[in-house]
Automatic annotation (TrEMBL):
One of its GO terms (biological process) is base-excision repair. Endonuclease IV plays a role in DNA repair. It cleaves phosphodiester bonds at apurinic or apyrimidinic (AP) sites, generating a 3'-hydroxyl group and a 5'-terminal sugar phosphate. It is an enzyme of class 3 (hydrolase). The lineage of its organism: Bacteria, Pseudomonadati, Acidobacteriota, Terriglobia, Terriglobales. This is Probable endonuclease 4. It comes from Alloacidobacterium dinghuense. Binds 3 Zn(2+) ions. The keyword NADP does not apply.
C-alpha cells in the first residue's frame, strides 16, 4: 500500500503556494488551508501564477491531497434568507478557488438550523449547496465536497454520523460529495474512540451510516474537553482527553487506509506543527509504512476509491 497521507492545517501567508513549501519543510505529504480569511465575507483574490505555483510544488513534493476548509461564516441552513444568500455566494467562491488551486477536497460545516426543524435544516443545506454549484463544473480534479461532523451543539447540522450520512445521501445526485470526520468532534459529541472496544463500535457505526469509503479525510485533533461535553476545543495530539492510543488505532485501521490525516491543533511553540506531524507518522506500524509512493494522479485516484 502507498504511504499514509499525514499533514497539518497551514498558513498561506505571503502567497497560497507557501503552504506547500511549509508542508514539505515539516515532513507532511498532505495539508489543509483556508483559501480566504475564515472570518470575513469578502474573499481574497487568488493570483493565477500562485495557483500554478501551488500545483507545481505539490507535484514536485508528491504532496496530496490538498484540502481546503470553508470559511466559518458560511451557514447554508440559516433561517435568515440574507445570511443564507451570503453563504451560498461565499461557498460558490470557495468552490471556485478550490478548483483553481486543483484541490481534491473542500471541507464544509453545513451550519446551524436554529429557529427551524432539523428536517428543514437538512433540506436548506442540500438546496444551498446545489445553488452554490451554479455555473461551476466540480466533476474535475477528483474534487469532492466533504461534509464534516460537528461537536454536537444542539442546532448544529452534522452532530451525528446519521446526519452527515443523510446530507451526503441528499446530495449524491447534485455534487461529488463525501465526509470529513474530526476526532475531537467525534469524541466530544459522545462517541467513544478512546477505549479499544469503544473505537471498534464507533468504527462500525461509521460503516453502517456514512460508509468508511465515503470518509476521505480525518482531522486528527486531541480534545481539551471530556467525551460528550460538546465543547470544540482542540489540543496537541497525546496531551488531551483522547490520548495517543486512539490515534494509533485510527492510523493503522485498514478501513481508513485511503484517508488523509490532517491535524488542526494549536501551534503554541515553534515547530508544534512539525512535532505533531512527526508524532502521527511515528504511530504508523512499520508494515503500514512500507510501499511505494503513488506516482501520478491516475494512481492516486485509484488509491482513494
Amino acid at each position: 500500500m502507498s504511504k499514509p497521507r499525514i499533514g497539518f492545517h497551514l498558513s498561506t501567508a505571503g502567497g497560497v503556494f507557501n503552504a506547500a513549501e511549509r508542508a514539505n519543510q515539516i515532513g507532511a505529504n498532505t495539508f489543509q488551508i483556508f483559501s480566504s480569511s475564515p472570518r470575513m465575507w469578502r474573499p481574497a483574490r487568488l493570483e493565477q501564477v500562485h495557483c500554478e505555483r501551488m500545483r507545481e510544488l505539490r507535484k514536485n513534493y508528491d504532496c496530496w491531497p490538498l484540502v481546503i476548509h470553508t470559511s466559518y461564516l458560511v451557514n447554508l441552513c440559516s433561517q435568515s434568507e440574507v445570511v443564507r444568500a451570503k453563504s451560498i455566494s461565499a461557498f460558490h467562491g470557495e468552490i471556485e478557488r478550490a478548483l483553481a488551486l486543483g484541490a481534491e477536497y473542500l471541507v464544509l460545516h453545513p451550519g446551524s438550523w436554529r429557529g427551524l426543524t432539523r428536517e428543514e435544516g437538512l433540506r436548506l443545506a442540500a438546496e444551498s449547496i446545489a445553488k452554490s454549484l451554479d455555473g461551476l463544473n466540480p466533476q474535475i480534479n477528483d474534487f469532492q465536497i466533504l461534509i464534516e461532523n460537528t461537536a454536537g451543539a444542539e442546532f448544529s447540522l452534522g452532530s451525528s454520523f446519521e446526519q452527515v450520512a443523510e446530507l451526503i445521501h441528499r446530495l449524491r445526485n447534485v455534487a461529488p460529495v463525501g465526509a470529513c470526520l474530526d476526532t475531537c468532534h467525534t469524541h466530544v459529541s459522545g462517541y467513544d474512540i478512546v477505549t479499544e472496544k469503544g473505537y471498534e463500535e464507533t468504527a462500525r457505526q461509521i460503516e453502517a451510516t456514512i460508509g468508511a469509503k465515503a470518509v476521505r479525510v480525518w482531522h486528527t485533533n486531541d480534545a481539551k474537553a471530556a467525551r460528550g461535553s460538546k465543547l470544540d476545543r482542540h489540543e496537541q495530539i497525546g496531551r488531551g482527553t483522547i490520548g495517543v492510543e486512539a490515534f494509533r488505532r485510527l492510523l493503522n485501521d485498514k478501513r481508513f487506509a485511503h484517508c488523509a490525516f490532517i491535524a488542526e491543533v494549536p501551534v503554541e511553540q515553534p515547530n508544534d506543527d512539525q512535532k505533531n506531524v512527526a508524532l502521527l507518522k511515528s504511530l504508523v506500524h512499520p508494515t503500514e509504512k512500507a510501499g511505494k509512493p503513488t506516482a501520478n494522479r491516475a494512481n492516486r485516484k485509484q488509491s482513494v476509491k
